[in-house]
Write a structure and sequence with these properties.
CATH superfamily of the largest domain: P-loop containing nucleotide triphosphate hydrolases
Number of strands: 20
Number of helices: 10
CATH class of the largest domain: Alpha Beta
Strand content: 25-35%
Shape: elongated
Largest sheet: 6 strands, mixed
């Protein structure tokens, strides 16, 4: 396996060099995008899910790790060794990118085993190929087996993705680099393959960098999350660490553990519930930390219900209240009798305080 270190990595590419719409952070008016002074460590045997919006530089980051794009500055290290002069083919990588790069004239079975196709044929290598293929088939099931005798031009985008993922698994890889491999699959297959891939990564403890804009996917697959925005890593940690202690306004507003509801509400400091004088700050509170009452409460913030939405799958109700010029989102158990226009009082069980100018989190009440 391998530990991966990126140390102060920088890369600027012109639009003409950009391979796709997700390949980097745009620099307005300059026809280029960049990754700037990026430092990141992927521990040996763990999966780092790099989560960020489209265009933030996730795919460019993967290509730098793979050696497909050389950095302009900084270092990429595998197990402490700088790999600047190590070509991609010698880095023991298994890669699945959004473009599948399958051999069109070969059957899918041969594509899956293409790593062994270019190795010296020996009984030991043949046995390894059979074992790898058997394990891959078990993990991916009938959805792969049905494709093995067909060639890539006859496959749909989702089917090509399955073959590309199978090829990645069969390689003698120390590092997996994975770029949204389930994007073209239907929902049922996507959920199944996420679980199967998680089992594979845990069983073989393969160091993996997995980039996605899908929160649900990142939460399922990542041992650690790296939140990325505009060519920068904003925060690294476990999902719960980042959710409980977001580094800044962007992270707090981006990471959402409860898909389908707003991640956080922001208010100016004048709405701080406890009356502290903290200067020019913003307060952020998550929906599950907001208590809503139709009766006046001490230290409560008065608002007016703007809308409600039943969440029957969770036996809950999502509410939105207007507080001055701000909206505060809340989630309560069961049904509620409140209607738009009703007055309410909001109390916060926990909230975060951010500097208004920099967006940096100053503190949280109460601390976890």
């Amino acid at each position: 396996m391998a530990r991966i270190d990126l140390i102060n990595v920088g890369k600027t590419l012109r639009d003409r060099d950009r391979a796709g719409p997700g390949d980097g952070a745009a620099l307005p008016g300059r026809g280029s995008f960049s990754i700037r002074n990026l430092t990141l460590t992927v521990p040996d045997g763990q999966t780092m899910a790099v989560l960020g919006p489209s265009g933030c530089g996730k795919t460019t980051l993967l290509k730098i790790i793979a050696g497909l794009i050389p950095p302009d500055s900084g270092e990429v290290r595998y197990d402490g060794s700088d790999v600047k002069n190590v070509p991609p083919g010698d880095r023991r990588l298994g890669m699945v990118f959004q473009n599948y790069a399958l051999y069109p004239h070969l059957k899918s079975r041969t594509n899956v085993l293409s790593y062994f196709l270019f190795r010296k044929k020996t009984p030991e290598m043949d046995a390894m190929a059979r074992a790898k293929f058997q394990r891959t088939s078990e993990l991916m099931g009938v959805e792969l087996a049905d494709l093995l005798d067909r060639r890539p031009p006859t496959l749909s985008g989702g089917e090509k993705q399955r073959v590309a993922l199978g090829r990645c698994i069969t390689r003698d890889a120390a590092l997996f680099l994975v770029d949204e491999p389930f994007a073209n699959l239907d929902q049922a297959l996507r959920e199944k393959y996420r679980v199967n891939l998680k089992i594979l990564l845990r069983q073989f403890a393969i160091t993996t960098v997995y980039v996605t804009h899908d929160h649900h996917e990142a939460l399922i697959l990542g041992d650690l999350l790296a939140i990325m925005d505009r060519g920068r890593i904003e925060q690294v940690g476990t999902c719960q660490e980042i959710y409980d202690e977001p580094a800044n306004v962007f992270v707090a507003g981006f990471l959402n553990l409860h898909i389908g509801t707003p991640p956080i509400s922001f208010l100016d400091a004048r709405h701080l519930p406890r009356g502290e004088s903290l200067g020019n700050v913003r307060v952020g509170v998550r929906p599950e930390e907001v208590e809503v009452s139709g009766a006046e409460r001490e230290n409560g913030i008065r608002g007016v219900i703007a809308g409600t939405l039943g969440l029957p799958m969770r036996n809950a109700t999502a509410l939105t209240a207007r507080v001055g010029e701000h909206e505060v989102h809340a989630q309560t158990a069961g049904a509620v009798s409140l209607r738009p226009g009703d007055p309410v009082w909001l109390t916060f069980k926990r909230y975060h305080v951010f500097e208004k100018a920099s967006g940096r989190r100053v503190r949280s009440y109460p601390e976890p």
